[in-house]
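__Protein archive entry__

___
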Amino acid sequence: MTLFSKNDNKKTEQEKVDERRAEVLAKGRKFKYPLQWTKYRVVVNTVLIAVIVVAIMLVSGWLALYRFGMTDEFLYRVTKFVPTPVASVDGETVAFSDYLMFYRSGIISIERQSGQVDNEGNLDELRSQYKRSALDQAEDYTYALKLAKELDLTVTDEEIASEFSRHLSLGGVERSEDSFLKIIRENFGLDKSEYERMLYLNLIKSKVEAAIDLNASRLASRVESILKDNGGNYAAVAETIGSDIIYEETGGMVPTQNIDGGRASTAFRLEPGGESGRFISINGDGYYFVKLVDKTETEVNFVSIKIPFTEFNSRVSTLREDGLVSEFVTITDNE
């Protein structure tokens, strides 16, 4: 028996080595390919499991938010990072995170003091009321954001910081930032970024309301003209214009830090008999005119005129009537 055929005798040594190498590699593939196939199946199975897990999480999240109306902190945190709609207003998506932020900040103190509520039924009723209010707020602010884009209105970081600083001394009490954040965290469950989000929304809505309410602007101009002609007689202005404006007297001294839209603090900066001129309420709900009657180091006595903003609310009401507000959650009277 010979190791090589006659043809092999004609081959060079290099050709024989190449053929031998090919035979060895061919035999090795019998062991290699089954291993490759196993790895392929592992990858496929891993991907399938991951897809199934994600699908289960999505379905569970959808049920928790849209079917069962859950509002726990975990879901709130998820909606902050995963854009999730709770409603739409005139084609603009309402963020679920904003709705939950308003709801949780409103109800959290009530739930922590649930022992003061008569029974669980009353607490459930309160939750439903707060949910309705929170969703209305989220829808209103979303519409304000839509109009702000159209009107090219913005709120700067400096404006937010200034408003935050003003809140540190609300009620006439000077607080450190740390102590203030502790208060809003314990009473409303909000951190600084969430509180600043609320300030931003309130500021942008205030700017929008002032920009679109041409009737309020015309009334303010009329008030300015009458005050100039009558020597600053606020009561006479109210008699002339009527119910379109709101005339008020403090009837005595009130704290300079009175929570009244900024009237008391504005009056305190005046001298007796001095007038403020037109300014927008801190609440952003209208124009104010203030005239100081008297003041001490801590109190003021003043008269004021308010011209409420009405155009924004009128537009929102029209959107609702026309079916341009769609809600993806159901809020019952008693859950």
Observations:
- The beta strands are 85-89, 92-95, 246-249, 254-255, 279-280, 286-295, 299-308, 325-327.
- The chain has three domains: 8-65, 82-213+323-327, 214-309.
- The radius of gyration is 34 Å.
- The first helix runs from residue 6 to 10.
